[in-house]
Amino acid sequence: MDDVLADTSTAILNLYNDKFGTTYQKEHFKNNDLWDTTVGPKYVAHIRQDLFQPGFFRNLTVLPDAQKVMKALHEQYEIFIVSAAMEFPNSLKEKLEWMEEHFEFIGWKNIVLCGDKSVTTGDFLIDDHEKNLKTFAGKPLLFDAMHNQQTQGYDRMENWQQIGELLL
Amino acid sequence: MDDVLADTSTAILNLYNDKFGTTYQKEHFKNNDLWDTTVGPKYVAHIRQDLFQPGFFRNLTVLPDAQKVMKALHEQYEIFIVSAAMEFPNSLKEKLEWMEEHFEFIGWKNIVLCGDKSVTTGDFLIDDHEKNLKTFAGKPLLFDAMHNQQTQGYDRMENWQQIGELLL
């Protein structure tokens, strides 16, 4: 969900900019190590705790074209939404409600909230974190995000249009 | 979790007995079809809706020997708790809290809340429902419960002592 269906990075940068008086947007992180060397460590130390507050995950916006392409994929594939949410107890019900609001065609039977995705299986995994992709038995697809610019060795999906071109 | 770690059946029978003035206990259902023919249909029609109320899943008691045997298994196996909870939005955080209270040695990374267990994988699955066991790629183990007395074709585990004897 986070940074694949939902624009979690923009919400994080909004918190970051409010706290430090900066004006970062996601495009500032493209093709460089700014997140890894500078912003990421300060995020972990000072911002990440705010994600535990009620409401953070409920109010995220949907990434461009995610609804349209997911709807088309849903006609051809069995889709499961797998989110590593268990660290954030308040996010569990919020993530279910968020899915019901924005992806109503995916029912509750196909939603998985977990701590470690290595226990799940499938043919394709679209994910923004190498830690999830590297244990997956099927075909891993890396979804481009500000925090994975240094990740190599995976097919990188820049956006949902590209996923549609590959899988539809 | 339900009817493997947690005594969900007793909580259900308490609700049932309160509503219908009966005195059912779990042992009344052993080796007969009483649940399938009589009590189960009335439960679905009149009691199951009460499981959506806040607190139901948070207050379940632990099944006998579950903690002791799980603790010993935890020393030898990588254990994931997989619960088909997504139909009950209020249960999600409650199930996480219940695990933290009664099985604190299983961390949040090893808890999976889902709608359909067919997307999960492993070497053994201990479960009370044939619908979950029949799609499992590893070794399925049926945990005895009042609602599965008619289920055949699986190794039936009568209690946690028997699981310990098999797996430890």
Give me some keywords for this one.
alpha/beta; homodimer; 3-stranded parallel beta sheet; globular; 12% strand; 168 residues
Written overview of the protein:
With 168 residues, chain A is α/β, with parallel strands linked by helices. Helix content of chain A is 36%, strand content 12%. The first copy, chain A, is built from 6 helices and 5 strands, in the order H-H-H-E-H-E-E-H-E-E-H. The first copy, chain A, has helices spanning 8-20, 34-46, 66-76, 91-102, 130-133, 160-167; strands spanning 81-84, 111-114, 124-127, 139-143, 155-157. Chain A has a 3-stranded parallel sheet with strand order 3-4-5. A two-stranded parallel ribbon of chain A has the order 1-2. In chain A, helix 3 (66-76) runs parallel beside helix 6 (160-167). The longest helix of chain A is centred in the N-terminal third of the chain and has 13 residues, at 8-20. At the A-B interface, helix 4 and strand 2 of A face helix 4 and strand 2 of B.
State the helix count of chain A.
6
Radius of gyration of chain A, whole Å = 16 Å
Indicate the proportion of strand residues of chain A.
5-15%
Helical content of chain A (DSSP H or I, runs of 4+): 25-40%
Biggest sheet statistics of chain A: 3 strands, parallel
Oligomer: homodimer
Task: Give the CA-based shape of chain A.
Answer: globular
Structural class of chain A: alpha/beta
Order of helices and strands of chain A: HHHEHEEHEEH
Spatial gap, N to C terminus of chain A:
20 Å
* Overall pLDDT metric of chain A: 98
Strand neighbour order, sheet with most strands of chain A: 3-4-5
The most extensive contact between chains is: A-B, 25 and 24 residues
Q: Ranges of chain A with pLDDT <50 over ≥5 residues?
A: none
Number of strands of chain A: 5
